[in-house]
Specification:
The chain is mainly α and 73 residues long. The chain has five helices and no strands. Helices cover 64% and strands 0% of the residues.
Length: 73
Amino acid sequence: MKVVSEAHKRFGQRLKILRKEQGMTQEDLAFKVGVDRSYMGFIERGEKNVTLKRLVDIAKAFRVSLSELFKSI
């Protein structure tokens, strides 16, 4: 799959950092968000355009605000 945009790639990198800081695997995060692990991998590689609902779900899984989720992107 192709990277959707540079912003998507940076967002995916941010997710990976947060996930590792919280000691989660992709599978752990995917379970909390309610998606398949492979889909979470696509997001982390910047290959999927994530919906607002999914962004909210991801922020809740990390227990951070949306603004914190997008910090430094």
